[in-house]
Specification:
Layout (H helix, E strand, L loop, with lengths): L1 H33 L1 H16 L3 E2 L3 E8 L2 E12 L2 H7 L7 E12 L11 E15 L22 H12 L1 E12 L4 E17 L2 E17 L10 E10 L2 E11 L2 E10 L4 E13 L9 H7 L1 E18 L7 E15 L5 E12 L9 E11 L3 E9 L5 E11 L14 E15 L9 H6 L1 E13 L5 E12 L3 E11 L4 E13 L9 E11 L2 E10 L5 E11 H4 L10 E15 L5 H11 L1 E14 L2 E16 L2 E11 L2 E11 L1 H6 L7 E13 L4 H4 L17 E14 L2 E13 L2 E11 L2 E10 L5 E14 H7 L13 E16 L2 E2 L5 E14 L2 H10 L6 E14 L2 E10 L5 E8 L4 E7 L1 H5 L4 H6 L18 E8 L2 E6 L2 H21 L20 H13 L1
Parallel strand pairs: 5-6, 32-33
Antiparallel strand pairs: 1-3, 2-3, 3-4, 4-5, 6-7, 7-8, 8-9, 9-10, 10-11, 11-12, 12-13, 13-14, 14-15, 15-16, 16-17, 17-18, 18-19, 19-20, 20-21, 21-22, 22-23, 23-24, 24-25, 25-26, 26-27, 27-28, 28-29, 29-30, 30-31, 31-32, 33-34, 34-35, 35-36, 36-37, 37-38, 38-39, 38-40, 40-41, 41-42, 42-43, ...
Length: 1023
């Protein structure tokens, strides 16, 4: 029951309320109709006085129920005009004279105050809003007349404040159109606002309000930007304000599908607190292509732009002048980015994801940039990168990335003046981190190297400026690790024009210390290896203190000369072949200011070299002299000593070898020029066949050549050793099984124990060629002969260029020993200074057409003297004072025996004394005598009791005096005495036992008699 009564009452009160409202409406309508004219006049007058500008309007009517219970006045075609001179300023006849126009203005006024003849505006709604804002080329606008001069004080307009209070309370704008044109900025736009609502309240210091709306911009233009392509620009928002508290519900900007969004709030006071978020949720870069200036499109050949860009920015914190700034956080990203140009490679995908944080803008050390990922791809290349950067003042950085670059894509970007061709692939990985130094210079290089690493793979790189300067197939793996450790693996390249083909290169470098402190740095090159075909170079190196480097280095160089041949012009070398394996170890201290002076001491005192040469051969074009084949040797050099071992080779028809060769003091003598040191060479030599003729071109003198001054720089030297030859040819002379010891220095040439088979027999010779008392030259020799064919000896030596004893005169097999001494000057022999003594045995010989014997043959009619045949002849001979002396010599033959002694000069003089047995010729020798003499019976018949009586003959030629006939006792005595005296004189000046044929380095010279020295001194002065 109670419920029923409650419902009945409720319906009763609701009905009464409806009735009351209808009565109120009718009353208001009645009053409005009754006072319609007064209300309209009051409202329009209020607006005119508030705006203080000429206005015009069309139909004015009252709309009672638009804002019930308030009354609404509608003003149609409301216009705010401009002064006439303002229109003339622009000089444009078609310029509209309306600044602001409204299709409808709805003014809401309170109904009750109208009864008291008062107008209280409760709200204003503007519909069909039109604004024309124009600026000429000087910068003057059509609204300037509304702006009071700065010098005029505008009194406070309480009416305007009242209107402001009203407008802020409830202002609605709809169907708004603004026309903007600025000739100075070359800008224009048409702005449409479908609806804009503004509501607020101002009461003393209290302000409250809110607003929302939408703005559309079309027909945009600005400078040279192609803004005409902006077909749609919409801006909408919703914002509330309450006494310093601003709340942005949303703000959205849409440009041709590009959206910007913002939300947030702020508290306005002395310091402003704000918390806003601005986002670009999705930006299609293809939409931006149309906004790029045409000039830029043509310059870069831009044909396509694509991808989706996202941006999200948060601004949070206090803002107080510049003393306090809010935090800023930006997240950004780009997905599936595309960029195509005619000039640059197409970027078919670009993805970026990153963040920028500025927690405290007043303290930039808190700023950081984080590129979480950066991925770039072209048709054949790609790059990935991550980056972290903090504190712009003293940046902390961490960068990591990798790249795969196909150089063919970028070859077209290179100027023609650089590279004509570029191709290949580069793969790289890199990372670096640390704190950026305050100053970037050489002192900061250590920090970067200690915190940086990379791996670089170069794959089949081809690059060239032209056909000559062209690199092909360049490959390498380069690795750099923190701590200054560099490694290069698998290095290879080709230089076709130079026929270079490097392969299997390797480099490992480690640096200790700081590059900025060169005196404390320590560099270790653990490995260097470069190969080219069959050739290669390997080395290790350590050095420290680059200001005054201390280093140690060892390495190996292997060269295949067949490959080197292609690098040498044909005009220099026609053939070069063989292999060289060269190793070295060196160390020292280098002063850069005097490296030229330190180089030689390092090479010869602190270094060790080894070399193995195999089958080396060389020949020169149009040169038959220089050329060698199959030279092999092993060389070592250390402590200023060079050693050669197992040397063998071939030159023309000459095969040669040397078991060992040592060379001392090369540096001390040649480079330092130390006078107390000698260049010493100790060697052993062998040859199969030596033809003296092949050495003649080396000894030929060039008449056009300038005097050789090199000899003056040759240091003192000693060359000694052993030499052997299977065969030797010297002119007509043929020698077999030659072996000798030898020693040569700058003034002394020694041959000792020179053994050979020659002239049908064998000989052992020792010889000294002494130039120590230059210009005199002294030759001392010793010879032991065994059954040497005398005729062959003389004939093959062209009779030693004399005609008094020739191969036509003598024959037989010579055995014996001879000692001799020859003095000459400038190749001129002093025959009066020749000293010689010897003993000979001549077997199966003969003396033919010997002038002294022939003269006697004429005298005695003994034809046997023309051609003396014998089986054995033993004699001695000596030379003294320009004469050759023969002590008594017995000649035994099957036909006739004889004895002879005498002398022969080096001119035409001679004197020979003969004792012949003519009975041997007439009667023949007895068998008993033949047997006694060791001869065979050759069929001699005759009485064997004949007496042997000698016939004494003499043959002499002394100047104009000559004699061939019977000898006299006086002549015999004089000759015998002369021989004895001359032999004694020879024994006084010539001492074979003191001859020194030693080939040792330290020769101990025997003391000669003072007479010999004085005599030699006289000879030197005389000449």
């Amino acid at each position: 029951m109670k419920t029923k009564r409650f419902i009945v009452r409720l319906l009763k009160y609701f009905g009464l309320t409806i009735i009351f409202l209808h009565l109120l409406v009718f009353i208001i309508i009645g009053i409005a109709k009754l006072f319609e004219g007064s209300i309209i006049r009051l409202a329009v007058k209020e607006i005119e006085s508030s705006l203080k500008a000429p206005i015009s309007y069309g139909e004015v009517s009252l709309v009672p129920f638009r804002d019930f219970p308030n009354l609404t006045v509608r003003i149609a075609d409301f216009k705010l005009g401009q002064q006439a001179d303002s229109v003339r300023v622009f000089g444009i006849g078609s310029l509209p004279d309306t600044l602001v126009g409204f299709k409808n203005v709805f003014v809401s006024v309170k109904a009750y105050p109208l009864l008291k003849n008062k107008v209280i505006i409760n709200g204003v709604e503007l519909n069909g809003f039109r604004v024309n804002y124009l600026v000429d080329s000087t910068g003057r606008s059509n609204f300037d007349f509304l702006i009071p001069p700065d010098t005029v004080e505008t009194p406070v307009d309480t009416v305007t404040q009242t209107i402001l209070n009203i407008l802020l309370k409830n202002l609605t704008l709809s169907d708004i159109r603004l026309t903007y044109s600025d000739q100075k900025l070359k800008a224009a736009a048409d702005i449409v606002i479908p609806k804009l609502h503004l509501e607020g309240r101002v009461s003393g210091d209290s302000i409250w309000g809110k607003s929302n709306g939408e703005i559309v911009v079309t027909n945009t233009r600005f400078a040279d930007l192609p803004l005409e392509k902006v077909t749609n620009l919409n801006f909408s928002y919703s914002v509330d304000y309450d006494n310093g508290n601003l709340l942005l519900d949303y703000a959205k900007l849409d440009v041709n599908g590009i959206e910007f969004k913002a939300t947030g709030n702020a508290t306005l006071s002395d310091s402003i607190w704000m918390d806003f978020n601005v986002a670009l949720p999705k930006l299609n870069l293809a939409e931006l292509y149309g906004f790029i200036p045409e000039s830029m499109v043509k310059e870069y050949g831009l044909s396509r732009l694509g991808g989706t860009l996202q941006l999200n920015t948060t601004v949070r914190g206090y803002l107080y002048d510049t003393l306090m700034l809010p935090s800023v956080f930006v997240d950004f990203g780009l997905k599936k980015g595309v960029l195509e140009t005619k000039q640059y490679p197409k970027i078919k995908r670009l993805d970026i994801d990153g963040k920028i944080s500025v927690p405290n803008p007043n303290y930039l050390a808190t700023t950081s940039v984080n590129i979480r990922s950066f991925n770039l791809e072209t048709e054949n290349s790609r790059a990935n990168l991550t980056l972290t950067l903090k504190n712009p003042n003293k940046p902390l950085y961490n960068i990591q990335g990798e790249m795969h670059v196909t150089l063919d894509e970028f070859a077209g970007l290179l100027p023609d003046s650089t590279l004509s061709e570029l191709s290949g692939v580069v793969d790289a990985k890199f990372y670096t981190k640390g704190k950026m130094p305050e100053y970037i210079d050489v002192n900061s290089s250590d920090y970067f190297m200690d915190n940086t690493g990379f791996t670089l793979n170069l794959i089949n790189i081809n690059a060239g400026v032209d056909t000559v300067n062209y690199v092909k197939g360049f490959n390498a793996e380069v690795t750099f690790k923190p701590g200054k450790e560099l490694t290069v693996n698998n290095l290879s390249l080709q230089l076709p024009a130079y026929k270079v083909n490097l392969k299997d290169g390797l480099l490992k470098v480690k640096v200790f210390g700081q590059v900025s402190a060169l005196d404390k740095i320590d560099v270790r090159v653990d490995t260097v290896h470069i190969a080219m075909g069959n050739s290669s170079f390997s080395s290790r190196l350590k050095f420290k203190n680059l200001n005054n480097p201390v280093f140690r280095c060892d390495g190996r160089l292997y060269v295949d000369l067949d490959e080197v041949r292609s690098f040498i012009p044909d005009t220099l070398v026609s053939l070069i072949t063989g292999k060289v394996d060269f190793g070295f170890t060196t160390s020292g201290i280098v002063n850069p200011d005097s490296i030229d002076k330190q180089l030689m001491p390092i090479l010869f005192e602190n270094s060790r070299f080894t070399a193995q040469v195999t089958d080396f051969g060389i020949s020169l074009p149009n040169d038959t002299v220089i050329g060698i084949d199959k030279l092999s040797l092993k060389l070592t050099m250390a402590n200023d000593t060079i050693r050669l071992a197992n040397v063998k080779g071939h030159y023309k028809n000459l095969d040669f070898k040397s078991d060992s060769t040592s060379i001392w003091n090369v540096y001390k003598t040649f480079i330092l020029g130390q006078k107390d040191k000698k260049l010493i060479v100790n060697t052993s030599l062998w040859a199969n066949y030596v033809d003296y003729d092949i050495f003649l071109p080396f000894m030929a003198e060039d008449s056009t050549a300038s005097p050789d001054t090199a000899a003056s720089s040759i240091p003192q030297y000693i060359i000694r050793g052993i030499a052997k030859a299977d065969k030797v040819k010297y002119g007509k002379v043929l020698i077999d099984d030659l072996s000798t010891k030898f020693r040569v220095d700058d003034s002394l040439y020694v041959i000792d124990d020179m053994r050979m088979k020659a002239f049908g027999g064998s000989m052992v010779t020792s010889l000294v060629y002494d130039t120590r008392k230059y210009p005199l030259e002294v030759i001392e020799f010793k010879n032991e002969s065994n059954r040497v064919n005398l005729k062959q000896l003389l004939e093959q030596n062209d009779d030693f260029e004399q005609d008094y004893i020739t191969h036509k005169n003598f024959d037989g097999l010579v055995s014996g020993t001879v000692f001799g001494r020859i003095v000459m000057q400038d190749t001129i022999i002093f025959y009066d200074k020749i000293n010689l003594m010897g003993n000979f045995k001549l077997e199966n010989g003969g003396i033919y057409n010997f002038e002294p014997a022939m003269e006697l043959s004429k005298f005695t009619n003994l034809n046997e003297l023309d051609n003396i045949m014998f089986s054995t002849l033993e004699t001695s001979v000596f030379i003294y004072n320009n004469q050759i002396y023969f002590p008594k010599t017995n000649i035994v033959s099957t036909a006739m025996d004889m004895s002879v002694y005498g002398m022969q000069s080096f001119g035409d003089d001679y004197e020979y004394h003969f004792v012949v047995y003519p009975g041997d010729v007439m009667l023949g020798k007895s068998k008993k005598l033949l047997k006694k003499q060791g001869l065979k019976d050759e069929g001699f018949e005759g009485p064997n009791k004949a007496k042997r009586s000698g016939l004494y003959l003499v043959s002499l030629q002394r100047g104009k005096e000559s004699k061939s006939g019977f000898d006299t006792k006086e002549l015999q005595a004089n000759m015998k005495a002369t021989i004895r005296v001359q032999e004694r004189g020879l024994n006084l000046v010539f001492h074979p036992h003191v001859m020194n044929f030693s080939t040792e380095i330290d020769r101990k010279e025997a003391k000669r008699k003072a007479k010999d020295d004085k005599q030699d001194d006289k000879e030197v002065k005389a000449n």
